[in-house]
Every structure is written in C-alpha cells, then in structure tokens.
Amino acid sequence: MRMQGKVAVVTGAGQGMGRAIAQRFAGEGATVVAVDLNEQAAKETLNGLDGKHLARSVNVADSKAVTALFSEIKKELGRVDALVNNAGVGSVDQFADIPDETWARVIGVNLNGAFYCAREAVKVMQETKTGGAVVNISSTSAVSGDGPAHYCASKAAIMGLTRGMAKELAPQGIRVNTLVPGPTNTPMMQGIPQEWADAIIKGVPMGRMAEPEDIAKVAVFLASDDSGFVTGQNVAVNGGSAFI
Q1: pTM of the predicted structure, to 2 decimals
Q2: How much is the average pLDDT of 186-200?
Q3: CA distance linking residue 115 with residue 99, whole number of Å
Q4: How far separated are the first and last CA of the chain, in Å rounded?
Q5: For 102-111, what is each residue's pLDDT tens digit?
Q6: CB burial class (10 A; 0-12, 13-18, 19+) of residue 62?
Q7: pLDDT > 90? residue 176
Q8: Least CB-packed of 14, 79, 200, 208 within 10 Å?
Q9: CATH topology (fold) of 7-237
Q10: Could you give the 3-state DSSP secondary structure of residue 36?
Q11: Domains of the chain: which residue ranges?
C-alpha cells in the first residue's frame, strides 16, 4: 500500500495503459481521479475498486477545462500527490502529408495537455506544501524515430519538459520523471495487422510486447517514496528494444 492516503490523477484512464495505471494506484491505496474523454470508460476503469474515486471527462488539450478539473479535485479531495500524464493521440500520416489540424491535435494532446495538467497539479502541490510526483508518459519512438513525425516530436518534447520541471521543482519536494514505454499490448496495438505485430515483437530482445500492467508497476514506483531520490530521469520499459 505504497500510495495509502494519497491522491493520484491519471489521464487517458479509459483503456490500455491508463486503465492499468489507475487500477494499480487504487490497489496501492491511492484515491484515483480517472480522466478520459470518454467518461463512461473512465467509470468502467474504477468499477469494483475500493475507495472514493472520481471519473471525469476532460479534454486535456483544453486549458480552461484542465484548470476547472484541478480546482474541483482540490475542493473535493484536498490535495494532489501524483499525476500521470498518460493521455495521448497519434495518426498514420506521412510527414509531407500531415495537415496543420492533425499536427495541432497531436501536439495539443500529447504535449500541451501534459503541460496543462502538470501546471495545475504542481500549483496544488505548492499550495498544500505536500510535495508530490509527476510521471510523464513518453515513448521509445522519441529516440528511435519509429512512427509519425508529429508523434515522435511530441514524445521527445515530453522528455525536455520533464527535465525542466525536475530542475526547478526539486527544492519544493516535487519529483518529475518520464516513463518511456516500448511496444505495449493495448487496444490500439491490437488493431494493427498481425504481420506488423510479429515484426514489432521480433525487435524486442525479451520476445514480447509489454503488458499494460508492466507499465503500471513502474508508474507507481516513480510516484511512490520507493523512488524518492529519482527525478528528471527517462525510465524505459521496453524489453531492451531501445536504450535511452
């Protein structure tokens, strides 16, 4: 029960890694705020879990909506101890064919959304003087370049955001790290052709994709006191498919 008495906010909590992360935090004793565009999916994530958890529908790319969310969390729960910036989107456009709107959407969710949520979470941590931890979810694509350019760019920017935050906020007891998953068995990955999946697995020395629970365990570690002297780091969970 490493998160007993703590409040953890998880974005993109309606499925895949986000669902596993939210459920793992709850299992470790945290009160979880599950955030997703699909509120019903967020509620399903929390079904059957002990505790006073909240499910909210929020577009993390909407700064005002994020501000309202964290204002409600502070009012209802009194604090924020951990934020996992997991919400993300992508597309399959080739570089020269990326429309302005698609570029803006991917950067808006993956980077701006992480910034908006982190900014508001940090404000609460500073107001309550309780410290805390932010876990920003990036991707092995940020260093390998495998994937659409706007996705790679947004996930690489997350690593820079983490480092800047970590340096500035460490004296206030706020730690910030980047969790860097490799190929993971999520609903998005399950939708690709089997031959693609086989090729991806062939590139993983451990011979399989990560399961969402593999990512969730590390997210809890980075948010808990077990990693109390870890900040500003890229922590790769990829079975050896890339070294960061």
Answers
A1: 0.95
A2: 81
A3: 23
A4: 30
A5: 999 999 999 9
A6: middle
A7: yes
A8: 208
A9: Rossmann fold (3.40.50)
A10: strand
A11: 7-237
